[in-house]
Design a protein that fits this description.
By secondary structure, the protein is an alpha+beta fold. It has helices at 2-19, 58-74, 114-122, 125-133; strands at 23-26, 35-38, 44-52, 85-92, 105-111, 138-146. The radius of gyration is 19 Å and the shape is globular. Homodimer.
């Protein structure tokens, strides 16, 4: 069974780098030992994490999660009137590390650029309505944004 896990691991790494269009370069070991990861036009990755309040029915948690993911299609660009969220995925925490700090659900949303993210956060009516609607069931929300390859 070990070879199958090694093969699956290799395929996973290849899929990750292919999906996110990473290019890696390793400098000459004699000159320097730094590794760099560069990306081209990767946009903005927006990570949202929730801890739901105790006693919230699982159906309500599922509804919140589905509504957040639906923003991918509901959020329309102000000038083109077309969806502008590149990707939206999420799910329930299943990490065996037990260091989630109470966070139970995580979502990854990707934008083409900072302008789209700014509109999403500050003006998009669908997103603003969603944010307003979850206050009664979300105990804690954390957000981390980054541009892939920018450290």
């Amino acid at each position: 069974t070990k070879p199958i896990f090694i093969i699956l691991g290799i395929f996973s790494i290849v899929a990750l780098f292919t999906t996110f269009n990473f290019t890696c370069s390793y400098s000459n070991p004699g000159a320097s030992s730094k590794v760099s990861v560069a990306s081209t036009n990767m946009g903005i990755v927006h990570i949202v994490m929730f801890e739901f309040k105790e006693g919230v029915p699982s159906e309500e948690v599922t509804d919140v999660c589905n509504r957040l993911l639906a923003l991918r299609d509901l959020c329309l660009h102000p000038t083109t009137n077309t969806p502008y969220v590149k990707t939206a995925v999420g799910g329930k925490d299943n990490s065996p590390e037990n260091i989630s700090g109470g966070i139970t659900h995580a979502f990854v949303v990707e934008f083409d650029n900072e302008e789209d993210r700014k509109y999403y956060l500050e003006k998009d009516p669908a997103h603003l309505a969603f944010v307003k609607s979850v206050g009664a069931v979300v105990k804690k929300a954390q957000v981390v944004d980054f541009t892939p390859g920018v450290f």
